[in-house]
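Subject: Sanity check before I submit

Could someone independently write out the structure tokens for this chain? I want to compare against mine line by line before I put it in a report. The sequence has 305 residues.
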Amino acid sequence: MKFEIIKKYKVDSYLNKKLYFYHVPKCAGQSIVKNLGVTLKSLNTWGWSHQLHKEIIENKNYIEDFYRKKEKQFPTVPVTPKNYTASNFYNLTKSCYSAIPFCFGHTPYTNYINSDNRFTFTVLREPISRAISNYYFWIKKGFIDKKTSIEMLYDKKILEPNLMTKFFSSFIDPSVENAIENLKKIDLVTNTENISNLMGYLISHWNLPNVILTKLNNTQEISNFKIPNSSEIFSEYNKDDLVLFKESSKLNFDFNSFSKDKQIENEQYYSIFTDEKIFNNSHKLIFKEKDLTFVTEALSKIKNI
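---
Independent answer below. Compare away.
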């Protein structure tokens, strides 16, 4: 298994603010939230970022997936497959937020109210790779047929075009300009190339253990499945996101400035989260420095998760 050891830096003082993560779909968010959730009590606003097309909502696999999650994770919350959006779930559960140190979800920017002045952050991804990953995700879930043309999926909004722009502006009236203005109001903006740096920043300022970072919820490409002119197709339906991603790079946090000349903290504890229950029949583990070699050797022996 591929993993990376993230060690925290010495900082002048720790931050006591609670955290909120604007989790854009298919932007490596699972790796962030699961690893932080090992040591921080967390609350997820379950659901999609937008109302799904009826062809997905009426899909047998989607309905079964919904009720399986509902039964395990929020049996008393009155949501249905048709209104299963993160915004809806947030509105039903926001009274619980004040006591939770770390909250996150696919709730679009304008739907989340930061009433308790949390430290907010988000991660963006190169739009074409994000769109392709999202496409494969729906196929892997069995919600769409890989034989259906991508153009048709976008035209019907079974695949949502320009999702990042809409996430930070509006799904009804999307605007790159408005998305940029809203991104400016978020405390820390970065991209998927800087996940390791982001984790180092967070564990340093919130006094958390070092992290062994593993890649979670990785949507593998379907074997031997090639899409003619796929880059052109995804580019055509995500033009706004391409502009947004380029413009938002000016807002990216300077992690080099943060870590420059800083010493590594002598932290005795580490945390890890994996997709499989590897240690003591659990997905997560907190362990001491003396056990680091044992844990990394165990991870190295696992080829695929």
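---
OP: Matches mine. For the report I'm noting this point. The mean pLDDT is 91.
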